[in-house]
From TrEMBL:
Component of the Mediator complex. This is Mediator of RNA polymerase II transcription subunit 20. The lineage of its organism: Eukaryota, Metazoa, Chordata, Craniata, Vertebrata. GO terms for biological process: regulation of transcription by RNA polymerase II. GO terms for molecular function: transcription coactivator activity. It comes from Eudromia elegans. The gene is Med20.
Amino acid sequence: ARSVAQVPVAEGKSVQQTVELLTRRLELLGADKQGPFCVDCETYHTAAATMGAQGQTGKLMYVMHNSEYPLSCFALFENGPCLIADANFDILMVKLKGFFQNAKANKIESRGTRYQYCDFLVKVGTVTMGPSARGIAVEVEYCPCVIANDCWNLLMEFMQSFMGSHTPGIPSVFGTKHDSIYSPADTMVQYMELFNKIRKQQQVPVAGIR
């Protein structure tokens, strides 16, 4: 089971410096580098021509990829189902451009390094939109356990060892799982929620300095 959470930028530090602080803590614990990872998300909105009645709000669909699952593509609706398709789904989306339009400016991704520590896999990613770094995402997996609620306390205890007071609360997807098996789609839902949260943070106007 996995937890995906945003970590705030340390006071007086940049995004990159905060990422380095986190990875240094992991290395001091004894975690081993396992190469790069990337999770990306493109936003599609319902094309105006298909909307019918005026004033109707379009649906957003998120098409996501995860380097852990190189042959899969994930399509998610907010509060809706998650479709897992093969990598050709991207080509299908091009053909469906009369129905779904790609909001290219909204492409967002988390990219960074994977670390292995005992039975835990940790990914510390810099979240970027276009050329700019917008935040930090940390994904932690406890590899031996597939029942989310059985290992939350273990996950939390381990996260506290390098995230300190920024250890997240239990992910909402865990609440809906109860005793069922955790799946890759649950990870993608957590990334979708985190990316949307970061997008919204960027839309809040910053008050001018008096």
